[in-house]
Amino acid sequence: MSEGEVTPGMDAFARLGERVRAALSKRGFETPTEPQRRAIPPLVAGRNALVIAPTGTGKTETAMLPVLDAVVRRRDESGGIHGISALYVTPLRALNRDMRERLEWWGEELALDIDVRHGDTTRYRRTQQADDPPDVLVTTPETLQAMLTGEKLRVALSDVHHVVVDEVHELASSKRGAQLTVGLERLHELAGRFQRIGLSATVGDPEEVGKFLTGDRGCAVVEVDAGSELDLRVLTPEVTPEDERLAGRLMTDPDIASHVRAIRDVVEAHDSTLVFVNTRQTAEALGSRFKELDVNIGIHHGSLSKEARIEVEDAFKAGTIDALLCTSSMELGIDVGRIDHVVQYSSPREVARLLQRVGRAGHRRDVVSSGTVVTTRPDDTFEALAIADRAMRGAVEPANIHHGSLDTVANQVAGLLMDFGELDARRAYEILTRAYPFRDLTAEQFREVVRELSENRILWLEEEADRLEKSGGTWQYVYANLSMIPDEATYRVYDMAAGRQVGTLDERFVVNFATPGEVFIQRGEMWRITEVDEEEEEVKVTPVGDPAGEVPSWTGQEIPVPFDVAQDVAALRARARERFDAGHSRAAVARWLCEQYPTDEHTASEALVQVAGHDGPMPTATHLVVEFFGREVVVNAPFGHRVNETLGRLLAALLGQRSGSSVGMDVDPYRIELEVPTGVTGYDVVEQLEGTDPEHVRALIELSLKNADALKFKLAQVATKFGALKRWRGGSGSFGRSRLLEALRDTPIYDEAVREVLHEDLDAPGASDVLRRIREGELTLEAVNDRTAIGRGGRSGSRELLAPENADASVIETVRERIQEDRVLLCCVHCKEWDRTQQVRRVAEQPECPNCGSTRVAALNPWADEVVQAVRSTEKDDEQEKQTERAYRAAGLVQSHGKQAVVALAARGVGPHNAARIISKLREDEDDFYRDILTQERRYARTNSFWD
C-alpha cells in the first residue's frame, strides 16, 4: 500500500468512532504503531487487507479495532444485531484461547459479546452460541466447516460482515488453507460480501497471499519490514576445557557438549528465552542433556498432551522456568509472556522460519528482536549466514499454495451438499472456482471427482440432469472429514517396566521406523522398542538404563532448504574460495566473512574448513562438479532439498533402468549422493544430466514414484479423504499399500496423491529448469575421479533404494553377502554334546556332528545359548520345552535341506516355520530364494519382536 493512503500527520485512531477512541485512551494506547498507522484507514473504509508486520507490533488490534468499531456503529444504527458480526480464524486452538483473553477487555468496554468455539467447546456452550450468537466468534478453520452445516448457526453466520484470518501464511501453504478458501465462499453464499483481513509476521509474496485470502477481489497490502528490526548472531561454539568435562557427564562428544553449554549460557544471560529446534527428536535429545545439567528449561512440542503443553506455557509465562525448548509449536504467537531472546539450534532452513521464531523476542515497541543461531557444521553455518542475510533484506520465501487439490474439492462438494441439500453441478463448480486455489480447476476434473464421490456413495449424481443430491453417507462423511489434516493414527508409547504410558508417536514414525530394537528419545529419556502392537496402536518400550554409546536411530524429517538459500550458500562459498586462491589466509578470509555477515571469527573460520581444504574444481551456483570414487558418486548441486530430491530420483531411476540394479540415493540442499552398481561412473551421471529431455522430467518422476513408499502412504490418506477408505491403517504393510496403488490408478485419487507428493516433497519444474540450463550452457558440468572436501561434507539422511521393476540384482547380492558373513550357532540335538559358532559361508553343505556323526544339527542365533541349555536339560519348564521343540524343528530342516536351511535360519526373524515355507517353494534360480528371505525379513522388521 502506498504511503499516500494516509494523510501525513493524521492519527489513524482519529478514524475510529468515539466509543472505541475512549476505550483506547483508557487502555493507554496513545499513538498507533506503524502497522496501525498504515492499516487502520483502509480497514475503517471497509477494504480487504493483508497486514504483514513483526510479532509484538499490535497486529491483532490493527485488525480488530476497525472491526469492533464497525460492529458498534452497526449495532447503534440498527438498534441491535442478532447474528455473528465477525469471525476471527486462527490455525491453532491455543491461539483461540489467547485471542479470547486479548479481546475480552475490548468486549467488556464496548458491551460486545466475544466468545470462542473449537473442537473442545462443550455441547452446552455450543448450544448457547447457536441460540444466542456472540458478536465476535474466535474459531478454527475446521470448526467453521462444522458451523456451516448447523441450521441455527447458518442463520447466525448470515450476519457476518468481517472475517479476520490470523497467521495467514501458515494456512496459505496447506490444504487446511485451501479448504478454508472454499469455506469462505460458502460463507459468501450465506452472508454476501464481507470484509476479509489477513494477519502475518512473514509473507514472501503478499500479492499472491492477498488473492488467496480474498478470492482475487482486491486487497490492500500493508507491509512493515521485519528484517530491519532484527539483531542476529550466528555462532559455532568453541570447545572449552569445561566442554571436555561435560562430555563425560552428558555421555556425548565435546562438540555436542559445547552446543549444550553455549545454549545454557545464553539462557542464563536472559530472563526468558525460547530455544527452537527443527524436530521433536532434537527437542527430546537436547532436553535430556539439559536435564542432566539441571537447567531450568521446559519442553514444548506437538507429541506432548494438551495439558502438558498448557502447563509448561503457564510456567514459562509465570517465570518459574527460564526457557522453553520448542519446535514449530511455538512459532505462531501463542502468548507465553515477554520473551527476551530466541535461540535457534542449527540452521532454521528457511527465512520465514527464522523471522517467525526470532520475531517472538522483543514484544515492546522500542525493542529490537534478538536471536542467536547455534550452528553445528560448515554447511549449517553457511546456510544460517545466508538465511540471516536474506532475513535482514526481507527476502522471504513465497507461500507454497496447494492449487487444485482434488481431495479438497471432494471434501467441499460434500460440504456444499450439506449447505444446500441439492444443487446443480454447474453452480457447485462456480462456487468452488471462486476460491483462488481452484480458479484453474477444469470442468472435467470436477466431474471426475463427483463421479468418484458418487461411486463411494458420498452423494447421488443425476448425470442427465447434471444435479448433485445429498445421500445417506454425506452427513457421516462430512463430520468424519472436517479437517484436511491427514487422518494418521497415534500410537501410545507404553513403558513395560513401569506399566504406564509415556507419550505418543505418529503413525508415519511407526510405519517407517518403529521396529523392535530401535532406540528413540521421548520426554528427555531414551527408550528401546520391544514390540509394536498394530491392533492396539501401541508401541511397547523399555527404558535404556545406560545410554552411553546409544545413538537414536531416527532424527525426523528435515525442513526443506529452498532453492534460493542453497544458491546463496554456493555463491558465498565461491567468493570465499576466490580469496583463498588470491593468497589470503584462513584468518583473513574469516575476518572478511565477519565484515559481511553477523558472526564471529571462530565461527567463520570453522565454516571455512571445507572451502580451505578443497582440492579440484570448485562447485558454484553455475558450475556443477560430479565426483566419484568406487561406487560412490556425488553431484555437487546447490539447488535445495526439493530440486535435489527430484534430480536424485530421476538419476536413480535412469541409472537403475540402464544397469538393471538398484541405486541408493541420499540428498541434502547442496549434494546428490548416489551409491551406484559396479561399472557406473560419474561420467555416466554427467551423460544423464546432459541428455535427459527437460520436458520428460515429470513423466519420469511419476514413473519412479510407483515404487516409493511415500506415494503409497499418501495414496491411502487421499483415498480416505475421498471416502474410498473408511480409515487408513498404515501398519497393514507394503503389500496392502501396493494393492491399493494398483486398484486406484487412473482415478482422481491417484492423480491427487501424485500431485501432493510432487508439491510437498519434489520440484519437477525446478528440476526441469536445471536440465534446460545445462542444455543451454548456463550451467556447466565437470566430472572428477576423486572425492573432495565439499563433496564429503554432506549430512546423511534417510536412504531409500529406488528400484525399477526387477532391477534388484545389487540388493539380492547384498542380502546374500550379508547372510554368508553372519554367524550361526550349530548344535547337535542327537548326542546333545556338541555345539559350535561359525560363519555361514564356512558351514558344510550337509552339516554333521563331529562327535556322533548325526546330521540332526540345529542352526540357531549365535547368542542362543539358552536354547542349547534347554536341549541338554533333563528337567524342563514350559519355556525350555518350547525352546527345545524349536531346536528340533530347526535340526529337522537342516537334516533334510542342508546348508540351504542354515542360510534361511540365519536370516533376521526367519524361524523354523517360515524357513520351511521359504525352502518348500519351487524356484528357477537362487535369487528368488534370497528374494523370499528378504520379504520375510522386512515383514518381521515391521510386525514382530520375536521369532515364531
UniProtKB/TrEMBL annotation:
The keyword Nucleotide-binding applies. InterPro entries: ATP-dep_Helicase (IPR052511), DEAD/DEAH_box_helicase_dom (IPR011545), DNA/RNA_helicase_DEAH_CS (IPR002464), Helicase_ATP-bd (IPR014001), Helicase_C-like (IPR001650), Lhr-like (IPR017170), Lhr-like_DEAD/DEAH_assoc (IPR013701), Lhr_WH_dom (IPR045628). Keywords: ATP-binding, DNA damage, DNA repair, DNA-binding, Helicase, Hydrolase, Isomerase, Nucleotide-binding. One of its GO terms (molecular function) is catalytic activity, acting on DNA. SMART domains: DEXDc, HELICc. Residues 262-407 form the Helicase C-terminal domain. GO terms for biological process: DNA repair. It holds the Pfam family DEAD. Residues 40-221 form the Helicase ATP-binding domain. Belongs to the Lhr helicase family. Lhr-Core subfamily. This is DEAD/DEAH box helicase.
